[in-house]
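Support case: user asked for a sample of complex input and structure output to validate their parser. Sending the pair below.
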Amino acid sequence: MDFGSTFFYKYRRFIKTLKIYLLLAGPGIIVMLADNDAGGITTYAVTGSKYGYGLIWFLLLLLPVAYVVQEMTVRLGAVTKRGHAEAIFDAFGSFWGWFSFIDLALVNWLTLVTEFIGMTAALAIFHVPPVVTVVIVAIVMMLMVLQGKYWTWEKIAILFAALNIIYIPAAFMVHPSVGEVLSVGLVPHFPGGFNGTLFFFLMANIGTTIAPWMIFFQQSAVVDKGMKEKDIPWGQMDTLIGSAFTVLVAIFIVVVTGTVLYGVEVESAAQAASMMMTTSPWLGTCVAIGLFNAGFLGAICISLASSWAFGEVFGWAHSLNLKVREAPWFYVCYLLALITAGGVVLIPNAPLVLITLFVQVIAVTLLPAALVFLILLLNNEEIMGKYRNTTLQNFAGIIIVVAIIVLSTAYALTTLFPEWLG
Amino acid sequence: MLTLETVFGQRIGGVFRGWTDKIHEINKKYEKPRITMSSGVKIALMFLRIYLILLVVLLGYKFWTMMK
């Protein structure tokens, strides 16, 4: 074959592969970009303002961690055709099933409240009243699921997920020193030495990268999408691309605040956006839009993760491919979660800081349990057959799970008893 | 005899009855774990129980110290 024919053949093959990928892509990218939710954006923004580029290397380390954990949900969903909640009930019995389910429902609802906090704070920068934000968000989110097709919902969600990369142009707008970003950011070190505050920040970054709802969401999404065993490699690629994007976005947020607000005391992403508004309205607008979008993306995924779990456990019809009359309880759960979580944000003097603290602590109780169940399920030959974990996957999985359990427990303790670390 | 219907009234009691029946049904359906309880699984689940009890105790302690 001459050069032209070889090139054309490779081009056709690439286009065909891309088309298949675009058909099967979705759960991995959505869950990973939704992982950079309102809480996540705040964590990265505050990390950048506190430590500059100093912890970028740590964010890079979280890429394989996120991939290893979420990849297991792809295989589990594709092989069992069951969501995570149902899989735990079936494999471990009702005690562990109820524990996981109630914990998930509680932590998801509380996290949903924090997403609404982020969205209302972001739009408040543009003088939009919280009540208007909550009502419009609830209406848009209901319209997204009521159209009756998983595929359509997924593509709309991917569009919102794509908006997450607004932080990449934002980082270029602040003209960071690339040499400094690389020399400071890529060399593993603990800026200012290892102490209680730094540990808290490291844990917060891990906590925003691996969250219990992500495991439940991606497995249910894989099932609802109808992925089969033969689609697993595509699901894995989807998850890998999503993991790379989530870390990339996190790094660019750190670059933005590390350049503009380094050394400034920042408590939230909304506050960072307000500060930037005064010096660079475009930059502030980008950060505020990014925060709203992050909260919105997180909210659509978290409320769906809960509705899927309710449907799986109670045996109700639970699919975005079903109309309201075919799966009424699925949509009622979704709507109730939205209304109640949005309503909390509108209560005057609601204990929003306490809620955020609670989310961190309760999420920690579910995370080790969810990870242990995941490893046990993926090692069961009866359930997984030839798709069970290999020795290498187990080695990586167990190291990550043990490290996360130890670190997240320490995080819960430092959140509950900050005086212990001084 | 004290029933949900006599305590909450016919309508609300009926709703509660429906829910409790459903929960009983789920408990029955998943009464026996499907996974083989090998020693590895038993150790993992035992560790999880201890971990969760410890965390609940710590949460209780935190709540108690906050209330004091």
